Amino acid sequence: MVRFFAAITLTMALVPPSFAVATQAGTPPAGGTREQNTNVQPISTISTSGNVSGETAALPPAPAGRKTVIGGAIRDVDPVRDQFTLKVFGGKQQMKILFDERTALYRDGKRVSLRDLQADKHASVETVLDGTNVFARSIHILSHAPEGECQGQVVSYDAGSGELTVNPVLSGEPIKLRVPAGTPIHREGQNGFSSAGSGARDLVNGTLISVKFTSNSNGRGIANQIAVLATPGSEFVFIGDIAFLDLHANRMVVTDPKDGKSYPVVFDPSRFPISEKLHQDAHVKVTTTFDGKNYVANEITVN
Predict the structure, then answer these.
(1) Which residues make beta-bridge pairs with 235?
(2) What is the pLDDT of residues 239-263, one digit of tens each?
C-alpha cells in the first residue's frame, strides 16, 4: 500500500505521495527497514489450526504504524520469499506485499493456516509500511465481494459520471472509483478544518482523502464513504516534537502527541531565523498551509 495521506501513513497522518515521507523520502521508516531473507523459517511453524508455534513467538512484533485496508485479488503467492501480489480493485496496478509467521490469515472470518494462502479473487488485506516495503498484518479471504480502503490524493472527479480518480498513498498508479449519488462525504481532522461544511465540491485535484469502498461483481470499486483530510489552501497547526529534520531538503516531520500521528512539513530555512534552533526532538508549533502537495510552513515556534 508508496511512501508519503501513509505513508509516513501516517499513524502517521495520511499524507500525499509527493511528500516522500514513509510512503512518498524523508521520513523515518515505519517499523524500520525490513531486509528480505530467503532463509526464512518454514511455514510449518504455523499449525494447521492457525495457531502460532513457539518458534514464531520469538519473532519481533509486527511493524507499527497506520494500518490501511486494501481490497483486491491475490496472485502469485511465493512462500519462499514470503510475498504475494495483490491486484488492487479499481485499478490496473499490482502491489507486492510481504508476509511471514506474524501475518494472520482468515477465510470468511475463521483463522486458518498460512499454508492455505493461495491465489483468490476476493481478499481484504490489512497492511502497514515496514521500511519501504508493504507488510500484511492480516489477510481476509472472502467468499463475497470485499470491502477496502483507499488513502491518497484526488486526481480528478467527474460529478456527471460519479467517477473519482485517486492517486493512492501506497501505490504510484491511480485507481478509479464510482461515487454514487448520496455517498457520505465529510471533513475529518482539526476543528478549524472539519467544522466547515463538506461535499462533492471538496473533491478537487490535490485534495487528500480516505475512501471506504466495496467491489462489485466486475471488480470495480464503489465508494460508500469519503473522508476529506485536507483541501488545497486549507490551514493546519501542528504542535509536537520534531521526529525528523533535514535542513538541506527543507523538510521536517512533526509528531503530535494528542493523536500520535506524524505530519510532514516543508519550509524555507532562510525565511525562519529560528531554523538554527531546530533539532530532532525539539517541541515546536508549526502553522502551515496545504498547497495540494505539501504542508508548507508559514510560522515556526520552538517551545
Answers:
(1) 289
(2) 999 999 998 999 999 998 887 888 9
Are 27 and 262 contacting, i.e. CB atoms less than 8 angstroms apart? yes
Q: Are residues 37 and 128 in the same domain?
A: yes
The whole-angstrom distance between residue 260's C-alpha and the CA centroid of its chain comes to 15
Number of domains in the chain: 3
Sign of CA dihedral 134, 139, 143, 148: negative
Q: What pLDDT shows up at residue 16?
A: 43
Do 248 and 170 share a domain, yes or no? Answer: no
Q: Which helix (H) or strand (E) holds 193?
A: helix 191-194
Question: What is the pTM (predicted TM-score) of this model?
Answer: 0.56
Tell me which residues of the chain have a pLDDT lower than 50: 1-56
Q: Which residues contact 199 (CB under 8 A, 6 or more apart)?
A: 185
What pLDDT, in 10s, does the model give residues 2-19?
A: 333 333 333 333 344 333
Looking at residue 121, what is its pLDDT?
74
User: 208, 190 in Cβ contact below 8 A?
Assistant: no
**Structural domain for 274, as ranges:** 235-302
21 and 109 share a domain? Answer: yes
Distinct helix (H) and strand (E) counts, the chain: 2, 18
Are 88 and 70 in contact by the 8 Å Cβ rule? The answer is: yes
Whether 1 is covered by a domain: the verdict is: no
